[in-house]
Automatic annotation (TrEMBL):
Its EC number is 2.3.2.27. GO terms for biological process: protein ubiquitination. Residues 291-365 form the U-box domain. The keyword Repeat applies. Pfam families: ARM_PUB, PUB10_N, U-box. Pathway: Protein modification; protein ubiquitination. Signal peptide: none annotated. PROSITE patterns: ARM_REPEAT, U_BOX. ARM repeats lie at residues 491-533. One of its GO terms (molecular function) is ubiquitin protein ligase activity. It comes from Sesamum calycinum. Keywords: Repeat, Transferase, Ubl conjugation pathway. This is RING-type E3 ubiquitin transferase. It is an enzyme of class 2 (transferase).
């Protein structure tokens, strides 16, 4: 049987090598014998030598299989001694079958030695069954092997005959001690499931003393292995992804509970933000703003869609965003303005699959939606268990304890080497934890967590701690409901604005992406004004690396009258935005022209006049109309039309001024979305859009 060959695909989710199922072809007798001896030697060497230790679990089953391979190796050596030129067809076929048996044995042994300790415990009974299957195959092969046709020494015959008898008597062996450990592991998960915290001493005894998971690196290896099983989960692995999520959360909790912030060498060292590794869904999150395709973002929230749905007009939105729009009493499509003939939301599975593929290709965190529309056996099994949620909350609680010792007073944030390192590691761990969408709510549910993160942002001991606190706020603000909560937290927006003005290149990036996210919530505009964030964003227009995002945030803010008025008061706003139109990236130019258009519409007469009198505006619009993105061309066409009307009206009214002319034409239709369409051609050679 070929069941053992499945093990390679279980871990790497790829088809096993055909060599595991097909006997070699076009091999001479001697070549086949050499191949058999090479495989058996490789198997034996994997258990010999000082650096070749047996696996932590399945020790007895592994050694039993290796002892059988040793006897088979003796048989193969005997073939070399007696000659191999005139063997019968039956013997040759048996040797081909032996090739399959040895190769599958190697797959099974390699899998056991390469798996994590927790995975071996969880799969204890299943893997034991595979070893028993291999014993049965050896027994069957020896029963049909025509030893009488081969001139073997009596010693070799006795060894083979003894192996044949032992194989016939072999029974399924499941190590009772290993199985008790497996049940104990589940008991810790049940503690969290029932709302109780496992005892610290018991956790230490189990993981450190019994399993030998005794440092940060070993915990990280265990977590990454289990995460790999979850990512590759196709609904055909036990335990389910939901249970595996629980064990991942349990291991994270134990890592921080038992070892605090030691590095992989057992010293208190710096931790790093997670980066893409082995296809897992991790990446430095500040990069996500730049790389997300526009079609993958919700037109309402501007965030990457997790659960895209189609409304009656055919437009796609994030489910939570469009549901909130309807709950507020709107009966039109936000993007087109058309009436919604019904409120049914149809899942856009095709788009969701495209988003999922893009996220996996780029290492962007992406969690499946948790609603009935996507229900299937595999999807339901992947939902987070209560144990996973409780363990994650407990982990967040541990991290909060180390962020600031429960205070935000600047005078108490006195840096000591150990305190500073622990604080930095805590906020870095919080950032890595928050990357996964399912963890965001568990972090925000921990009392005092948000305030403590903001405290690190304001008074953190190290630059990296403050930067990672800003990145954590950006990560948490991906959830729409948290954007207002974060903005209302005392000192949060002020600290982000300060980091944008005075931080390092990475700090500025973290700050501007967080401010952009907060700007997407309409109720945050007043906080952005009073906190000085607008001044910081305007100043960032000339800063390479963050100007694009700064222009995007301003384009959102000026859509509200109070925001437009505030931006209009900034002396360098128009110059900075026109500078972006001249030298910025395609996305930056798009954001800049959108901001200038909204500034004309809501910033008052003085702002309009300043925009329209900006040096070389006409030529910039001309260039953008031909070379800009689709959205940039639409915005440029609208601004060019304003420019043309104001010039004509100024002449008509005898030089009463641009402001008067614009005020007299304020009935121009306004885009209802961040990517609205524009219709009329203007005199500045507007191309067909």
């Amino acid at each position: 049987m070929a069941s053992a060959a499945i093990f390679s695909s279980l871990r790497r989710r790829r088809s096993p090598s055909l060599e595991a199922f097909l006997a070699p072809v076009d091999l001479s007798n001697a070549a086949l014998l050499d191949t058999l001896r090479a495989i058996s030697t490789d198997l034996l060497l994997s258990f010999s030598g000082k650096d070749k230790s047996p696996p932590y679990f399945q020790v007895k089953n592994s050694r039993s299989l290796i002892r059988k391979i040793q006897v088979i190796s003796v048989l193969l050596d005997a073939f070399r001694d007696v000659g191999f030129s005139n063997i019968s067809t039956t013997v040759f076929l048996c040797l081909k079958e032996l090739y399959l048996l040895l190769y599958r044995s190697k797959i099974l042994i390699d899998y056991v030695k390469g798996s994590s300790k927790l995975w071996l415990l969880l799969q204890n009974q299943s893997i034991s069954g595979h070893f028993h299957d291999m014993n049965q195959e050896i027994s069957t092969l020896l029963d049909v092997f025509p030893l009488s046709e081969i001139h073997l020494s009596e010693d070799v015959k006795e060894q083979v005959e003894l192996l044949r008898k032992q194989s016939r008597k072999s029974k399924l062996f499941i190590d009772k001690n290993d199985d008790l450990l497996r049940l104990k592991l589940y008991s810790f998960l049940n503690e969290f499931e029932n709302g109780r915290m496992p005892d610290r001493n018991q956790l230490y005894s189990f993981f450190v003393e019994k399993l030998g998971i005794c440092n940060v690196k070993s915990y990280r290896d265990e977590i990454e292995f289990l995460e790999e099983q979850i990512v590759n989960h196709d609904g055909d692995i036990e335990p389910t992804a939901s249970v595996l999520n629980g064990f991942v959360a349990l291991m994270r909790y134990c890592r921080f509970l038992l070892f605090r912030f030691e590095d992989e060498d057992g010293e208190l060292g710096k931790w790093k933000r997670r980066t893409t590794k082995k296809g897992l869904i991790t990446r430095e999150i500040a990069d996500t703003f730049i790389t997300i395709p526009k079609d993958f973002c919700c037109p309402i929230s501007l965030d990457l869609m997790q659960d895209p749905v189609i409304v009656s007009t055919g437009q796609t939105y994030e489910r939570a965003a469009i549901a909130r729009w309807m709950e507020e009493g709107h009966s039109t499509c936000p993007k087109t303005g058309q009436m919604l003939v019904h409120t049914k939301l149809v899942p856009n599975r095709a788009l969701r699959n495209l988003i999922l593929q893009w996220c996996m290709a780029n290492g962007i965190p992406y969690d499946p939606p948790e609603n009935a529309d996507y229900s299937s056996e595999s999807a339901v099994s992947a939902l987070p268990s209560k144990a996973a949620m409780e363990a994650t909350k407990a982990t967040a609680g541990l991290l909060v304890e180390h962020l600031a010792n429960g205070t935000q007073e600047p005078r108490l944030w006195q840096p000591g080497r150990l305190d500073a390192c622990a604080q930095e590691n805590s906020v870095t761990a919080m950032l890595n934890l928050s990357i996964y969408d399912k963890n965001k709510s568990r972090i925000m549910d921990v009392e005092g967590c948000l305030g403590t993160i903001v405290g690190v942002l304001r008074y953190g001991h190290t630059t990296e701690a403050r930067e990672n606190a800003a990145a954590t706020l950006f990560s948490l603000s991906a959830v729409h409901d948290y954007k207002k909560q974060i903005a209302q937290e005392s000192g949060a927006v002020e600290a982000l604005a300060g980091l944008l003005r005075e931080g390092t290149a990475r700090g500025k990036k973290d700050a501007v992406t967080a401010l952009f996210n907060l700007s997407t919530h309409t109720e945050n505009c007043a906080r952005m004004i009073e906190s000085g964030a607008i001044t910081a964003l305007v100043g960032a227009l000339g800063c390479e690396g963050v100007s694009e995002e700064a222009a995007g945030a301003l384009a959102l803010i000026v859509r509200q009258p109070i925001g437009a008025e505030a931006v209009a008061k900034e002396e360098m706003a128009v110059a900075g935005l026109t500078g972006m139109m001249r030298c910025g990236t395609p996305r930056g130019k798009e954001n800049a022209v959108a901001a200038l258009l909204e500034l004309c519409r809501g910033g008052g007469a003085a702002a309009t006049e300043r925009v329209l009198k900006a040096p070389a505006l006409a030529s910039l619009l001309q260039s953008l109309l031909f070379t800009g993105t689709k959205r940039a061309r639409r915005k440029a066409a609208s601004l060019a039309r304003v420019f043309q009307r104001c010039e004509n009206a100024s002449l008509h009214f005898g030089g009463l001024g641009v402001g008067y002319a614009f005020a007299g034409n304020s009935a121009e239709p306004r885009d209802t979305s961040f990517a609205g369409d524009v219709g009329m051609p203007v005199s500045i050679s507007v191309p067909v859009l």
